[in-house]
Amino acid sequence: MRSGQRGVNLGFLLLISQLFRVGPSNVPPVTVATLGLNIYLFLVPQKQLLDVCISVQNAYIYKDWTRLIFSPFYHADDWHLYFNMVSLLWKGIKLERRLGSPWFAYIIGVFSLLTGVVYIILEMVLTEFTKDPSYIRQCAVGFSGVLFALKVINNHYFPGGVAHVFGFPVANKYACWVELVAIHLVSPGTSFVGHLAGIVVGLLYTKGPLKKIMKICAGYSGSRSSPIRPNAYNAYTPYNQYSPNNTYSASNEAPWYEPYTGGLSEEEQYQAAIRASLNDQGSGHAQRRPNYGFNVPTGPLTEEEIRQRRLNRFEG
Where would you find the membrane-spanning parts of this chain (predicted)? Predict the structure, then answer.
C-alpha cells in the first residue's frame, strides 16, 4: 500500500535541473536506474521512514531484515535526496565507465546490503563499549553510506590528486576520513556510524577480501566468458570508452568541475548548474539553507579557469 505522495520542492527541482543539464543520455544505465529508484521512492514512498530505517533494534532484535533492502533508498527530505543523488551522479559516471555496467550494478547491490550489516555491527559494538543502550535504537536512512563506500573505491581506481574539504586541501586517500568528521561536526544530525560503515565496506573491497568473494559468487574466473566481470570495456559500449587493451583514457573521464564545500568531491560540484538553478528560482528561494550542512558555492568558474585547471590536472 502506498503512502501519501510528497510535494515537490527546491532540492528536488535542483536535482532534476542538474540531471537535464548533464543530459540523461550521458549518464550510464545503472547510474540512471539507481537515481530513478531513489527519486521514485522519494516522490511515491511505499512505506513511512520509521518503517524502513535501519537500527539494531528494528533489524536485529525484531528480525525485520527487509530494512537492509529499503533503508538505503529512502531519504528524509529533498535536500537529503539532492546531495546524495548529485554525489551518486558523478561517482556513478566515473565508476560505471571504469568498471562496466554489470559489475557496477553488482557493486551497488552488494554495498547497499553490506553497509546496513556493517552499520548494525558497529552500533552493537558501540553499545557494548559505551554501555549506552541508545545506540541500538538509532535509526538511519539514506544512500550516503553506499556513497562513502563508492568514494573509497573511486579513490582506489583513480588515485592521487587533492580534494578540498571546506576549503582545505586534503589528499584524496584521506578525504573520506576528513569528510566523515567534518560532515558530522557541521551537521550532527547525520549518521556518523552510517558513513563510517560505508568507508569500512569500501576498504573491505579495496584492501580486504570482499572483491575476491564477489568474484567467486559471480562465477568470475578471469575469462572473457564470465557472466559478470570488472573492467569489462565492452559491457556497455556507449559508456565504457576503453581502448582494446582495456586501458582507461583520461580524455574519457567524466566532466570535471572546481572543488566543493561540504563533503562533495570536485567532480560533484556542478557549480554552474547550481547557481543557474538558484537564480531561476528567485532570490526568495535562494535564501533557504540546506538541512545537512552543505554550502552552495559562491559562483561558477569562468571558461578559461575551467580549461586551465583541466590542463593542469591532465599534465599532473
Answer: 103-122, 181-205
Residue 143: closest CA among 267, 6, 38: 38
Question: Under a CB-based contact definition with an 8 Å cutoff, are residues 93 and 265 in contact?
Answer: no
Q: Is 144 a catalytic site residue?
A: yes
Catalytic status, residue 221: no
Per this entry, what is the length of the chain?
A: 316
More reliable by pLDDT, 171 or 224: 171
Cβ–Cβ < 8 Å for 116, 71: yes
pLDDT at 148 over 90: yes
Judge whether 142 and 84 are in contact, CB under 8 Å: yes
Question: Which position among 87, 144, 191, 277 bears the catalytic label?
Answer: 144
- Our measurement of the distance from residue 114's CA atom to the centroid of its chain's CA atoms, rounded to an integer in Å, reads 15
- Catalytic option among 75, 80, 184, 195: 195
Distance CA 216, CA 210 (A): 10
Alpha carbon distances (Å) from 160 to 171, 174, 187: 7, 10, 28
